[in-house]
Design goal:
Distance between the termini: 40 Å
Largest sheet: 9 strands, mixed
Strand order of the largest sheet: 14-13-12-11-7-10-9-8-15
Shape: globular
Radius of gyration: 20 Å
Order of helices and strands: EHEHEHEHEHEHEHEEEEEEEHHE
Number of strands: 15
Number of domains: 2
């Protein structure tokens, strides 16, 4: 299978390293409007460099593309590829507007190619272990949950032409850094979101960015669970994300690649193999390798990828509700 990676920024390195390790995968091309970045990646992986997306589609004719571009380009690139029967694996978020998400879902529904969203933290061992415990109800049903993302992003991070803007990034910490953990809460709780009440702030980069660096939200789910969510890029360091899933008889805690069972007066760390090949920064989660492998297994077996535009798009619906709630001061209902 011939694969093109579109966008040669930091996250593309995760994709390229995994693709290089897979059997029956040929990295046929890379694409970036910044020629030097495309040329460096092309030389490293022995493929052709393109500087224009449409030219690559026309000339290279890949079987699959990986979209690692700025957020505002995700929908038009994915739709263009799907309509040509090309499989698409897209970095999060798959869309940044209600209209874009609808267009993407329509394109997926009307075409046979697979579409996937990179919520790689669903694949890390700590999350898989806790999800299994929850699904088996080993400690009873889920009662409530809370999650934290405390990272650091300074002025330099926003020095390009798209980070820190609503038009191109779609938002700040909510869309970019915290959306993985937001997605994990719904996934682990096992129920869709009914409503969101939220507040967003710019605490440490006023005058530098037009988006938020801090968000606090209350989620209500169909199964009655209420969860609190707090994320910021105004912290002094980058710490592992943390999620507590409070069940009837114990609390299940995930801290990055570690997991714990917290009972009355005692805490037990789960024995995990931790054999995961961490690619990229450890606090990102490290699940790109198993996610990408699963995506290609689904293509080979002609199965739909589980995190598609409909499932992966739920996170988009949630963060759009966060912004709407913060702006209006009201609870926003998704259902």
């Amino acid at each position: 299978m011939r694969v093109s990676v579109v966008g040669c920024g930091a996250i593309s390195r995760n994709h390229l390293r995994v693709l290089k390790s897979l059997r029956n995968i040929e990295i046929s091309s890379v694409v970036d409007i910044k020629k030097d970045r495309a040329d460096v990646a092309a030389k490293k992986y022995g493929c052709k460099a393109y500087y224009d997306f449409e030219t690559m589609l026309k000339e290279d004719k890949p079987d699959c593309i990986h979209i690692c571009t700025p957020h505002y380009l995700h929908v038009p690139m994915a739709v263009a590829a799907l309509e040509k029967g090309i499989h698409v694996l897209c970095e999060k978020p798959c869309a940044i507007s209600k209209e874009g998400l609808a267009e993407l879902r329509k394109a997926q529904k009307n075409n046979s190619a697979n579409f996937g969203v990179c919520f790689q933290n669903r694949y890390i061992e700590s999350v898989c272990a806790v999800k299994d415990i929850i699904d088996k109800r080993l400690f009873g049903k889920v009662i409530s949950a809370r999650a934290f993302v405390h990272w650091n992003r300074g002025k330099d991070y926003y020095s390009d032409d798209w980070h820190g803007t609503f038009e191109k990034e779609g938002g700040g910490v909510t869309v970019n850094q915290a959306v993985h953990t937001q997605d994990l809460m719904r996934y682990l709780i096992g129920s869709d979101t009914v409503s969101v009440t939220a507040h967003t702030f710019n605490d440490h980069l006023k005058g530098v960015i037009e988006v938020e660096d801090t968000v606090h939200a209350l989620f209500e789910y169909e199964n009655g669970v209420i969860a609190l969510f707090n994320a910021t890029t105004a912290f002094s360091d980058n710490r592992d994300f943390m999620i507590d899933i409070i069940c009837k008889r114990a609390t299940l805690r995930i801290e990055g690649n570690k997991a714990y069972i917290i009972g009355v007066g005692k805490t037990k760390q789960l024995r995990l193999k931790n054999a995961l090949n961490i690619i990229g920064k450890s606090y990102w989660g490290g699940g790109h390798s198993p996610l990408i492998k699963d995506f290609y297994d689904c293509i080979e077996k002609k199965h739909p990828f589980p995190i598609d535009a409909f499932e992966g798009g739920k996170a988009v619906e949630e963060f759009l509700a966060i912004y709407k709630s913060s702006e209006s001061g009201e609870k926003i209902f998704l259902k």
